[in-house]
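Readers of this paper often ask what the protein records in our data store actually look like. Such a record has a labelled line for the sequence and another for the backbone structure tokens. Nothing more is needed to write down the fold, since each code stands for a local backbone conformation. The record that follows is passed on verbatim for readers who wish to inspect the format.
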Amino acid sequence: MSSEITNRATKIGVRAFFGIIVVFITVIILFNCITTIPAGHVGVGTMFGKVKANTYSEGMHLVNPFLKITLFDARQKTHKESMGVPSADQLITQFELSLQYRLIREKAPSMLKETGTPQEVLSVHMVPLLRSQMREIGKSVGTAENFYNQDVQKRIQEELLTSLLNLSDKGIKIEKLLIRDVVLPEIITNAVLRKKEAAQSAEKAKEELKKFKVDQERKQAQAEAEKIAELIEATKQKEVMLIGANARLDAAKIDAESVLVKAKAEAKAKKMLVEAVTLKGYIKLESMKSLVQLQNGNHMIILDPNAVSPLPFLNLDNMSAKTTK
């Protein structure tokens, strides 16, 4: 009885174990049958090495558990490339490029079949063509210095973009190409630097010359102003001196006129006196005045040789004093 119970328990245990294994395998199979495609991606299925023609869009899909899904990112991406580009003068200029592109969804199966993964598609088709075309276009530029020319850069962008449009046959859509930076050869940058320094030195010299000219003009203007001021001052002094001389001359004229008037008055008075007392009486009157001077200590006399008695004719000391005055 106990052995039967044991056998039944053993059978139940074996069945349960196999049941768990079946459930586990079923879960694994179901899990492998469900695949999720992320946003912006497309899935390409491969079964036993054969690429499926249809693709899987975004979302959840129920697929064969033996199907391998390869994801292709169809969103817009940017590839940055740095390369040396030779010009016709055989100088190498460093270019920094940005290439905006996206993978074409419909061509994902052919890309996987003919080339491989998305990264392999880029490294096999896009990057080599980009480098090759950029170098070929660079050879058409005469000198490396021309790479800085805006028109030359625009032409490079247009020609390079046109040559890369054929990548659409390989499943790559080129949308935009940008030149981020252009680094000229060191020999040119040094020459440009020296040229710039020379230009700066020339500008500095021009500014110093301009400053010197302004300073000289200022000094000249100041000297002219001082000269004009001196002329004005000299003219003023001359006018003052002239006015003073004219005043003195006018005063002398007035004095002379007054003396003349006085002399004329005295002569007229003497004439009137002579006419009143006669010449003989006038002489006697003058002699009497001289006697008064003799009393004051003046002893110099002039005798009239025609007179009977010596009479003083003129007071010389008084005359000398008047002459000194």
